[in-house]
Recover the amino acids of this structure.
């Protein structure tokens, strides 16, 4: 691997991210998959980085899941999106930041489609007025929330309490970065580092002390694939894709996986359990799985948040081995306690206790 | 073990690294014409047996080169040895000897 | 009236045209931007189809230009038409009035790093056709291991590829790939060699024999399918993915060396000069000839002529024919002027 070659490509794919004042929209599934990630993102950006992030309860789903599983037509999805943009405009913002990769892909696709086909934009403008009586507007900047953390990665590193370093050996942790397909594969110029060698997560890993692993199936989709997962009989395709990735990354002995998509961390995490049940195989050290994180969770760990406040107890693959490696203290007794010590209940133990 | 109602799908991708060079060398020794095929498909198009069964010499050569020996063998075993493919082959491959040689080397377990 | 003719580009095309024009009695001034004559030919090792050394041809071409004035490391600073003559100012300060200008500016190799998915400049063992020629010439390239076991060639890198901006076929890469495939097999007899092609365009005399030689004598495996992406595994070997379109299956192979057949694009230095003269270019970026069959050597501007790869990818014999044809066309033009 020639590192300078990658740096050259990374420098070719840079984009402007405004410095402050963002309109933030949540994902419809992340709050149940990774319940603290978005809250931590807002806490980091507002309270640690002192940035203005505004959100409104009137924001809805972007329609992405319905659109990608052929349940709604494109014009409907575009009108939903036009409504979100109109809300941003109504509250006086022009920098739109979304938490979800599916949304980011769909917003990008929509803006590019409007650019290519102005008559479609005019039609959606009309439909927006008909249905919502809202004034049509487009964001000046569109960013994914991981772009924001990428932009401020060095500031986060300056405030870091822990690094992506194995405390016992002093060696950098070996980190797999997995980028959501719709971040840059559709529009390479819209992602930091492009589509072939994305830098958005690699940049965070480097800034926080870790070592990025470049394994042969790095570009491969996690396998979510909407229709593949949503229909139970197709789920084997989804699983097989994840399996292929794990088989490919295994020889590199990763310590952890970082992702920037709602679906990827969920599937890379949960499918490890399913594979271990089906094949009796685990991919981490000592019979454990490889812990999978969202970038917000990792930023939170680096900044010293309590692991249980980051919602890491709802992961399928246990995170404790990684916390031990990083030297992060945690209270095992509090793992299944919620706010004010409320008992969250305990998960049924899977038949493969190593996970 | 839990059951999920779905399963892992085995990969259908060809891995060229699984190609058996040693057997191939023996085939080349018996009939070096195998190297000359340019996959034009004349043999398959004119094949008498091919009208009724899946017979294709050019595909068999390809399958062997892709390490799929069993499938290759299935494509030549219904050959009637009529010799039509030899007549049409633009590279003048000795198809009869090639078919028999494939059968000889790749039928062996 | 002077009898000056300016030839732009000191590659095989410019050399041959200069020699012919000089023999006809013209005062030829040859301009070359590099510090040596010969263009890409000077960097090449052997030539298809027979594999004759590039140096033999280069020596012959340079041996024929005795009496031709040439300037190395020199660029055209400005060029414009004054009455019926071209006024050319060179970067070395010299100004020349000439009856005719011949664009023999040739081609640039497609920059292979633009096909990001192939990892040129990123993975340790990915090289281009030009790098391999350099290796044959010098015996040195740290990207080529001691005894590579599996070697792949990717045809059409930056050619027949609208995403790369080049829809056209670069014409010479198929024959070059097959030639180089035979040569690496000779250099590394234990290696298995693969060519990933979309169509094999072996159109010239002796080219089909070269293809047969690659198959029969070198055991080169031809796989009909474009390489889709390349990655590196733990051993720094290359994992290459493609489809074997003849069997309709995705295919994977682990290689020790991958050679990218970079195609041709119009030379950027040549196009810069052409812009000063407002010369037309086709959609493919190459210069527009006066017509496409009868007057290939003439441009849309009176007194400006073309030869070689500046009007599209060409083999060396094609290029040399055009150089001679251009000399004749220039001679006819100047004689008519008188």
């Amino acid at each position: 691997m020639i590192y300078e070659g990658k740096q050259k490509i990374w420098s070719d794919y840079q984009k402007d991210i405004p410095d402050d004042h963002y309109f933030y929209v949540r994902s419809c599934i992340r709050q149940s998959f990774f319940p603290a990630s978005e809250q931590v993102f807002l806490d980091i950006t507002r309270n640690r980085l002192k940035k203005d992030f505004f959100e409104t309860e009137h924001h809805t789903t972007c329609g992405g899941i319905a659109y990608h599983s052929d349940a709604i037509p494109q014009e409907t999805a575009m009108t939903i999106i036009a409504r979100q943009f109109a809300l941003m405009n109504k509250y006086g913002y022009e920098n739109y930041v979304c938490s979800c990769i599916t949304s980011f892909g769909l917003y990008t696709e929509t803006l590019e489609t409007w650019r290519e086909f102005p008559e479609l934009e005019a039609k959606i403008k009309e439909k927006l007025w008909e249905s919502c009586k809202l004034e049509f507007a487009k964001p000046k900047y569109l960013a994914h929330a991981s772009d924001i953390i990428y932009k401020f990665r060095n500031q986060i590193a300056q405030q870091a309490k822990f690094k992506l370093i194995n405390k016992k050996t002093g060696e950098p942790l070996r980190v797999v970065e997995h980028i959501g397909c719709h971040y840059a594969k559709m529009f390479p110029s819209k992602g930091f580092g492009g589509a072939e060698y994305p830098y958005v997560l690699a940049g965070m890993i480097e800034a926080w002390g870790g070592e990025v692993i470049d394994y042969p199936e790095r570009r491969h989709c996690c396998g979510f694939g909407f229709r593949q997962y949503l229909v139970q009989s197709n789920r084997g395709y989804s699983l097989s894709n994840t399996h292929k990735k794990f088989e490919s990354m295994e020889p590199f002995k990763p310590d952890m996986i970082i992702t920037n998509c709602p679906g990827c961390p969920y599937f890379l995490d949960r499918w490890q359990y399913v594979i271990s049940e089906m094949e009796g195989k685990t991919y981490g050290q000592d019979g454990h799985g490889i812990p999978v994180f969202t970038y917000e969770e990792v930023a939170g760990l680096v900044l010293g948040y309590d692991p249980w406040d980051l919602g890491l107890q709802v992961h399928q693959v246990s995170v404790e081995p990684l916390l031990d490696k990083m030297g992060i203290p945690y209270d095992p007794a509090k793992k299944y306690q919620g706010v004010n010590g409320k008992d969250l209940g305990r998960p049924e133990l899977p038949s493969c206790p190593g996970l | 073990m839990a059951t999920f109602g779905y399963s892992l799908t085995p990969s259908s991708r060809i891995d060229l690294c699984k190609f058996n060079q040693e057997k191939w060398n023996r085939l080349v020794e018996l009939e070096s014409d195998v190297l000359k095929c340019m996959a034009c498909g004349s043999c398959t198009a004119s094949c008498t047996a091919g009208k009724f069964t899946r017979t294709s010499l050019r595909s068999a050569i390809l399958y062997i080169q892709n390490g799929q020996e069993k499938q290759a063998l299935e494509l030549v075993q219904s050959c009637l040895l009529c010799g039509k493919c030899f007549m049409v082959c633009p590279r003048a491959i000795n198809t009869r000897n090639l078919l028999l040689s494939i059968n000889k080397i790749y039928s062996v377990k | 009236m002077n009898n000056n003719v300016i030839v732009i580009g000191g590659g095989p095309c410019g050399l041959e045209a200069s020699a012919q024009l000089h023999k006809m009695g013209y005062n030829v001034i040859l301009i070359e931007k590099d510090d040596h004559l010969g263009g890409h030919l000077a960097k090449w090792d052997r030539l298809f189809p027979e594999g004759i050394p590039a140096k033999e041809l280069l020596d012959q071409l340079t041996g024929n230009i005795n009496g031709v004035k040439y300037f190395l490391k020199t660029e055209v600073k400005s060029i414009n038409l004054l009455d019926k003559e071209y006024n050319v100012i060179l970067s070395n300060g010299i100004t020349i009035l000439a009856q005719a200008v011949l664009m023999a500016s040739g081609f640039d190799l497609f920059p292979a790093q633009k096909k990001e998915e192939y990892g040129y400049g990123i993975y340790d063992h990915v090289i281009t056709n030009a790098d391999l020629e350099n290796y044959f010439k010098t015996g040195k390239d740290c990207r080529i291991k001691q005894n590579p076991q599996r070697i792949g060639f990717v045809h059409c890198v930056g050619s027949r590829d609208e995403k790369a901006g080049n829809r056209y076929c670069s014409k010479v890469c198929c024959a070059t790939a097959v030639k180089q495939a035979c040569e690496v097999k000779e250099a590394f007899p234990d290696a298995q060699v693969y060519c990933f092609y979309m169509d094999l365009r072996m159109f010239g005399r002796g080219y089909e024999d070269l293809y047969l030689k690659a198959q029969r004598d070198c055991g080169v495996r031809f796989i009909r399918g474009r390489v889709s992406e390349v990655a590196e595994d733990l051993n720094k070997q290359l994992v290459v993915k493609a489809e074997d379109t003849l069997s309709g299956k995705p295919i994977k192979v682990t290689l020790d060396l991958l050679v990218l057949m970079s195609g041709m694009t119009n030379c950027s230095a040549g196009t810069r000069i052409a812009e000063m003269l407002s010369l037309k270019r086709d959609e493919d970026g190459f210069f527009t000839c006066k017509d496409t069959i009868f007057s290939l050597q003439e441009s849309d501007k009176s007194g400006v002529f073309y030869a070689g790869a500046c009007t599209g990818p060409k083999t060396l014999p094609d290029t040399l024919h055009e150089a001679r044809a251009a000399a004749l066309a220039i001679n006819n033009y100047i004689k008519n002027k008188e």
Remarks:
- The first strand of chain C starts at residue 4 and ends at 8.
- Chain C touches chain B through 20 residues (CB under 8 Å).
